[in-house]
Design a protein that fits this description.
By secondary structure, the chain is mostly helical. The protein has helices spanning 3-6, 8-22, 24-39, 46-71, 79-96, 110-133, 139-156, 177-182, 190-208, 210-220, 222-227, 232-258, 269-279, 291-310, 315-351; strands spanning 98-101, 104-106, 184-185, 188-189. One of its GO terms (cellular component) is plasma membrane.
Length: 352
């Protein structure tokens, strides 16, 4: 064993490199922020910061749900379609209610519309969970199937048309629907407050509850977790339900912001969610990931997207750049895993 491997200088260099690898998302955030602040006109204006924060929130919701799924060793490709489906559900309930026949129609207030919409998202998560845990369908295939099913149902709900003018009706108590996406509290958009609540709740579950420990255990070693008494199938069901919940929130927020619902809403959103989670340090092999890192990753993706738009970069090149970001994030994640393994081996050899 060479001196550079075991000596204090070598150990310090290893620790510094490992620290830089772990802090790569935060470093990337600083780099893209400084770059666009200097290169993009009006990037630092208050109005742009608010708009960008709203965009980041949408991606962050999906990325938080995706983080838990990926930590268990799975993937959820259906979140974008759930966004579109849930937006259409909210739009349909706002405009039409539920027709019971015989001239009877049930109309819903804003809270009820939000609750039903969220239940729809959770239900799709249940379907994903059942396919994966009970029928042993691979997560990639199961969620790819529900991606198409949810998108098809969204299209069928309006024959492919948009539900416009979702301003609600004061008589039914649905006129506050717009507040979800366009309202603010203490000058901060409601969607940001919702993100703070969801992120804090998710972080608490991940760090301080048995469920959080079980999620990491399933991703780290599913067989070992099962032998230790962890109810693996139940844990996987919970994470896919939570992912559906997060996607439903995004569908609600977008329909409220636009005051319209379109069945194509949410297309490719799953890619941004995966990119944010992986960029934030979530390992695609499972067992590792942090909610804070995912939030930072969502900011990187959001700032990158909005900054490129402000600089007039072609949407085609934007897609290429996002793809390169995902590839780079996975490569660096694999490099970090290999480096950590080598450091552990060297430390063990030095102790002998």
């Amino acid at each position: 064993m060479s001196a550079i491997d075991t000596g204090p200088n070598g150990a310090s260099a290893q620790n510094l490199l490992l620290l830089l690898l772990k802090a790569r998302t935060f470093i990337a955030l600083i780099v893209v922020f400084v770059f666009f602040a200097a290169a993009a006109p009006n990037f630092l204006t208050t109005a742009n910061m608010i708009i960008m924060a709203k965009h980041v929130a949408l991606n962050a919701f999906l990325a938080i749900g995706m983080t838990f799924v990926i930590i268990t060793g799975g993937i959820d490709l259906s979140v974008g379609s759930i966004v579109g489906l849930c937006g259409m559900v909210a739009g349909y309930l706002l405009l039409n209610g539920v027709d019971l026949g015989y001239a009877w129609t049930i109309q819903f207030n804003t809270f009820e519309i939000g609750l039903i919409t969220i239940l729809v998202g959770v239900l799709v998560g249940v379907v994903n969970g059942v396919l994966i845990t009970r029928l042993n369908v691979a997560p990639f295939i199961a969620t790819l199937g529900t991606l198409y099913v949810a998108r098809g149902l969204a299209l069928l709900s309006s024959s492919g048309s948009t539900f416009p003018n979702l301003s609600g009706n004061a008589e039914w108590g649905s006129d506050t629907f717009r507040w979800i996406g366009a309202g603010s509290i203490l000058g901060i958009p409601v969607s940001i407050w919702m993100l703070i609540l969801v992120a804090c709740g998710a972080a608490y579950v991940a760090r301080n509850t048995p469920l959080g420990r079980h999620i990491y255990a399933v991703g780290g070693n599913e067989r070992g977790a099962s032998l230790s008494g962890v109810k693996v199938k139940r844990v996987k069901m919970y994470v896919y339900m939570f992912s559906g919940f997060c996607a439903a929130l995004v569908g609600l927020i977008i329909a409220s912001q636009l005051q319209a619902a379109h069945p194509a809403t949410g297309e490719t959103f799953e890619l941004n969610a995966i990119a944010a989670a992986v960029l934030g340090g979530t390992s695609m092999s499972g067992g590792r990931g942090r909610i804070f890192g995912t939030i930072v990753g969502a900011f990187v993706i959001g700032i990158l997207s909005d900054g490129l738009v402000m600089m007039g970069v072609s949407t085609f090149w934007q897609t290429v750049i996002k793809g390169l970001v995902i590839i780079a994030a996975v490569v660096v994640d694999q490099a970090q895993s290999r480096f950590e393994a080598r450091v552990v081996l060297r430390q063990q050899a030095a102790m002998r």
